[in-house]
Amino acid sequence: MFYQIPEPIEDILLVFSYWDHILSGFILTMWLYAWAILIGFILGLILSILRQYGGKILKIISTSYIELMRGTPLLAQLLFLYYLPTSLNLPTPDWAVVSNFSLFDKNFNIIFLNHRTMVGIIALGLNSAAYQAEYFRGSFMSVGTGQLLAAQSLGMSKFEGIRHIILPQALRRVIPSWSNEAAYLPKYTIVVYFISVQELFAEAHYIVAFTYLSLTTYIIIAIIFLVLISTISKGLDVLYNRLKIPGL
Amino acid sequence: MMSETKKFLKSFLYLIAGIIISLIALFILFPKLYEIASYITIHGLLATLLLTALGLISGFALGITLALMRIYGATELRWLASGYEKLLRGIPILVLIYIFLYGTPGLFFYIDLRYRPIAGVVLALGLRSAAYQSQIFRGAILSVSSGQIEAARALGMTGSQSFRHIVMPQALRLALPAWTNEYAVVIKDSSFAYGVGIVEMTKAGYDFGVAFRELWAVSLGVVTILYFIFTFPITRLFGEYQNKKLKKLGMGGGS
Amino acid sequence: MDEYVLRVNDIWKSYDDLEVLKGVSFELKRQEVKVIFGPSGSGKSTLLRCINLLDPPQKGEIYLSGLNLMGEHVDLNEARSKIGMVFQHFNLFTHLKAIDNISIALRRVKKLTKEEANRKALEALERVKLAKWADHYPAQLSGGQQQRVGIARALAMDPEVILFDEPTSALDPELIGEVLQVMLDLAKSGTTMVVVTHELGFARAVASEMIFLGEGIVIERGTPDHFFTSPKSERVQQFLKQLTILYGTHEKLLEQGD
């Protein structure tokens, strides 16, 4: 059934001999993840505030954006963005922000930013924003409109009310469900493989090309993701428990 | 209660009508769009729907089993089901697909070579979906108020009778909003079949772009719209609104 | 032994370390109505759930028309179909219409055909004066109507005894009367009932015996007259005083219905 001879330990060690590739891929995955979460958070928060408290037009625009991004595949969105310059006949400049360093006799050459990586980050960020916006919206709804009314009746502007009354509560309440999105986002960074960004999954292909150990390699990659996600999830849980306020 | 339903359906139908009208207008203004859309539909839609349907159905079968294991099973079964859920939720779908198609190439030996990619994707989608559907149904079953189960037993119904006739009918209704959300997730995940050479909608859009480079982005934009047509109306119709309706009927919400 | 529909013998029930029932016994003849009352936490509801073995006791026996329900080879589900139960929170099946709420057990447990089941269900609904509401869902019915459907559901099974677990405690005051009226009619037409309730007017009207349960044991038992004229224990006296202050008004409702 397997075309490799089942000597699993040997295979695992062979795959791990490419640890420099695994590490570089992992670093890039984390890099993409960090930017995606950050952009997604800021944009998502703005979107949900506009959707919940904005005027009619703003409401429609933000809702349409959210529903569109959530109702369509990340892959299609990414490819659309990537081929946009081609369609508009714009040249794609060949630039890169690279990091070069050595670790244990292995040379690392990680491209942190170039045209493709940037498209990937933007796509992931825009997509994540829509999902995060939904979490924020639920949180706003649970805080309720009563408190904002009270703030306004005291003379605060809507903006001030949101900033000082709603947000502090909403942001605290959103942590459990938001941690869900935050913990599982690394899974989706894989999609940039399709535009030749050398993150973890792409590196896995590289390793398979040299070792022919496809099953072992992919399983190891899967385990790395599993561990990463569990760690983030657990970490956020611990953080949440430390920050909990009774009754909130 | 009646007028609220009518109001919602009315606004929903207006929305749908609006989308259809704007689509038709777009196609008339830009006939090229229509050409793209029909290309994608003809070449990719069937595969997308097939993958989605098969993935959802197998996910449903396994998911319900896991949910039952977690609720009614012995400690080892519960542990097993819970572990399965955690495992499948933490692995990217593409990695899962690659494991089944390239990691274990002999897995689908009994299937014709042409259809093996589809089998691999369906397996990956199904296994993943089962983990999420298990959660959905477990929540739905548990939220059927326990008092009703008590009443059923007091009447003399056996455990399986009360489950079949009292718990399940309500649990399925309660699960509907979350389940349509899962449907949307699966149809979006089916786009990853692009990576293994199956011509579904995303690949079809990409292929069109390869042939007509200036229309590459447009083609993918059309793909996006098509996906949207298949997700938005359904999730809107059966989503949050259903939740409110169910609460009104007194279903769910614990004992 | 057969003259007793129900014999509850020395029931002991505890949850982990908490002893809820500590040796409770009573018996019930055909067409008798017994009322169990007492402070909350005294184990009244637990006692009822022990009787139909929804929550089996640790020690003691339950005899239903001579059959030991805790013996081997006893089909519990069949036994339960002969004991009716009416719940404090109604526990109607929310996804079924009123008539289906009643007919489902008739079909599934007693294996009646659909037509027979519907006929019996309609009869039961008529007895509780809700025949017109047969096609309504529980959410469309008031609390009092829901409880009456609950009573009809138990009635339709032709049980040997019906257990009532604080049937009016969850009802708004205006709705209590209609349910009490139905229960009165049932009692007067000869239904064998065990009722846990605070409605002393009901007890005074139809109970053959009242049992005061406190902290898991029977503190006092006797006819309603006994309790209302000269109760022995001080506990009971205090309790009755508090109740009549709270519930005194219901007497009027019952007198009207008579």
Pick out its properties:
heterotrimer; B: 255 residues; mainly alpha; MetI-like fold; 10 helices; C: 258 residues; alpha/beta; 6-stranded mixed sheet; 4-stranded antiparallel sheet
Describe this structure in words.
The complex is a heterotrimer of chains A (248), B (255) and C (258). By secondary structure, chain A is mostly helical. Chain A has helices spanning 8-16, 19-53, 56-71, 74-87, 115-143, 146-153, 158-188, 200-211, 214-243, and strands spanning 96-103, 106-114. A two-stranded antiparallel ribbon of chain A has the order 1-2. In chain A, 38% of the residues are buried. The model of chain A has no long low-confidence stretch (mean pLDDT 86). With 255 residues, chain B is mostly helical. Chain B has one domain (2-248): MetI-like (MetI-like fold, Orthogonal Bundle), CATH 1.10.3720. In chain B, helix 5 (116-142) packs across helix 7 (159-189) and helix 6 runs antiparallel to helix 7. The two termini of chain B are 23 Å apart. Chain C has 258 residues and is of the alpha/beta class. Helix content of chain C is 40%, strand content 24%. In chain C, helix 3 packs across helix 4, helix 3 (98-108) runs parallel beside helix 5 (143-155) and helix 6 (173-188) packs across helix 10. The radius of gyration of chain C is 18 Å and the shape is globular. The mean pLDDT of chain C is 88. The A-B interface holds A 1-3, 67-68, 70-77, 79-81, 83-84, 86-89, 184, 187-188, 190-191, 193-194, 201, 204, 208, 214-215, 218-219, 221-222, 225-226, 229-230 and B 86-87, 89-96, 98-99, 102-107, 184, 187-192, 194-195, 201-202, 205-206, 209, 213-218, 220-221, 223-225, 227-228, 231-232, 235.
